[in-house]
């Protein structure tokens, strides 16, 4: 098995039987600042501290690659609705210092057969750092 990474119990990997990968991986971090108004002058900026990191990526699910898209999406919805914080690991290394929570899950269903079986879908996942 060629393991790419994981989000909690979900393993991103390429095996002889299945392909579960992602694309468009983006990590965003930002600082928190306050601006204090001063009469007759420009505002004074004050560094408050680091903000929460966010990560977004798209998981591709295709029955032709040994994946049951409906089952995979159901598992992702369950994780999202549970409110669990999970480690995000890519290439054997944790991303960030803390765990992440799913704050958004979008599910484009792109291919359904004549019996209503989902054949191909993706999951656009947005995570936020959990502190």
UniProtKB/TrEMBL annotation:
Protein name: Phage tail protein
Source domain of life: Bacteria
Lineage: Bacteria, Bacillati, Bacillota, Bacilli, Bacillales
């Amino acid at each position: 098995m060629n393991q790419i990474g994981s989000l909690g119990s979900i393993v991103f990997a390429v095996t002889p039987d299945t392909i579960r990968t992602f694309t468009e991986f983006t990590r965003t971090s930002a600082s928190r600042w306050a601006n204090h108004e001063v009469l007759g002058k420009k505002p004074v900026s004050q560094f408050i501290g680091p903000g929460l990191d966010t990560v977004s990526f798209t998981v591709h699910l295709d029955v032709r690659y040994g994946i049951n898209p409906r089952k995979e999406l159901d598992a992702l919805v369950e994780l999202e609705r549970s409110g669990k914080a999970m480690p995000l690991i890519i290439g054997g290394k944790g991303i960030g210092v803390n765990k992440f929570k799913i704050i958004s899950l979008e599910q484009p269903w792109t291919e359904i057969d004549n019996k209503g079986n989902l054949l191909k879908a993706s999951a656009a996942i947005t995570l936020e750092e959990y502190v």
